[in-house]
Write a structure and sequence with these properties.
The chain is mainly alpha-helical. 77% of the residues lie in helices and 1% in strands. The protein is built from 15 helices and 2 strands. It starts with a helix and ends in a 9-residue tail after the last helix.
């Protein structure tokens, strides 16, 4: 008994040390990211670029919950973003809500849509991906064909003189930090462990007492909430919403690329992936505007070929002992 106790003590001490390092690194990363974005308007840096950088970090991180933690690949992920954008626009423009009061309803709209899509969670793989893409197309058609008095028809909705670029920038930063904090909690919580177990083997998880249906639903709703909030804040920032941009499939494509570039299943992966790819896209656009998409496409292909697990994922594969320390 004493030998077992003596052996368990170092392991418990090692786990506690790894836990402290994990959360210290998380606090440092969060602090650096926060200070950087807080100073953007103060230092008069490119506000629009950094606004969309935060948006893509949030979108990629939320997608990570659906794909990296839960194992789904929702090709129709843009549906949550688009519904969130139109929810804010309709509440502000048609019902005269204050913008800050309307934004939470965007998140609620995303969760509601996630509940409507919940029956598709019984599918997996390419079947789920195709169905989610079809449902996103249905959402777009429904909103397009609603009365123009509600959604503005094909012309969309203008929010009038309500644009406040700096305030909406800081609100987007709050949404990003909320998303990162939620995913950090999820990565160490029982729900996060259950999601990974269900992702790896749903039948084995069910035999171990995990409520597979409930766990999948919780992860799915978290993944639906944040892109809807992003859509609402982006509608406020740009002051206009239309179906062409709100439901553009390129939004899903970029979200997937940025999340995969950093590494799915980690907290830092989507952050690193979004930072790297958005800056790369900006650099290529500035230097080679005519062949921007070609060069970015080649860079993406090379990344997938040589770093299929993403930047952070590849690092953790080569140094598996670091998994306990890197968020």
């Amino acid at each position: 008994m004493s030998l077992k106790t003596n052996a368990a003590a170092p392991r418990a001490s090692e786990r506690e040390s790894a836990r402290r390092i994990y959360f210290t690194l998380a606090a440092i990363i969060g602090g650096v990211v926060s200070v950087y974005f807080v100073l953007v308007p103060v230092l008069k840096l490119n506000l629009a670029f950094h606004f969309y950088l935060m948006l893509w970090i949030t979108m990629a991180s939320a997608f990570n919950v659906a794909s990296g933690f839960s194992g789904y690949m929702p090709f129709g992920y843009v549906a949550f973003y688009g519904v969130g954008a139109f929810t804010t626009a309709i509440l502000v423009q048609k019902l005269h809500f204050p913008v800050l009061a309307a934004l939470p309803f965007s998140g609620i709209a995303g969760v509601t849509l996630g509940l409507m899509f919940a029956p598709t969670l019984r599918l997996s793989g390419i079947y789920f991906a195709i169905v989610s893409l079809a449902l996103a197309g249905i959402c777009r058609l429904v909103i397009t064909n609603l009365p123009e008095e509600v959604t503005g028809g094909s012309f969309g909705l203008h929010l009038g003189s309500r644009a406040e670029p700096v305030l909406s920038f800081y609100v987007m930063m709050c949404v990003m930090l909320l998303a990162l904090g939620t995913i950090l909690w999820l990565s160490r919580s029982r729900l996060g462990k259950a999601l990974r177990a269900v992702r790896d083997d749903a039948e084995a998880a069910d035999m171990m007492g995990v409520n597979v249906v409930r766990v999948r639903l919780y992860g799915w709703l978290i993944a639906a909430f944040f892109p809807a909030l992003c859509g609402g804040v982006e509608a406020w920032y740009t002051n206009v919403v239309d179906t062409e941009t709100a439901f553009n499939t390129l939004t899903t494509a970029k979200t997937v690329i940025y999340a995969v570039a950093g590494g799915l299943g980690t907290v830092t992966g989507p952050i690193v992936g979004a930072f790297t790819m958005v800056w790369l896209d900006e650099l290529i656009w500035r230097e080679f505007p005519r062949i921007n998409m070609l060069i970015l496409g080649i860079a993406t292909v090379l990344l997938v070929l040589f770093l299929p697990r993403g930047l952070i994922g590849t690092l953790l594969r080569r140094r598996p002992q670091w998994r306990r320390y890197i968020p």
